[in-house]
Amino acid sequence: MKKYEFDVEFDIPVTYPTTAPEIALPELDGKTAKMYRGGKICLTDHFKPLWAKYVPKFGIAHAMALGLGPWMAVEIPEMIEKGVITYKEKTSES
Question: What pTM was estimated for this model as a whole?
Fold first, then answer.
């Protein structure tokens, strides 16, 4: 099993918690159509209606698990298959 790691950033809007945070993977910026400028992932169609239904019970962990998780489960394998993302061995520093 190979482990792919990406830096994750998120912006908490002024209107939080009524508005879901925006999640970004800057390393993948421009590598998939389901991403906005700056590496922000598209959450509008599936996650934002769910967020609106459960305001104010949802938090950042929900955004990561229910927004980022499914997005990565679909997009990352597709990018690997197309060769857009390649596996890099992690080097150990002594």
Answer: 0.79
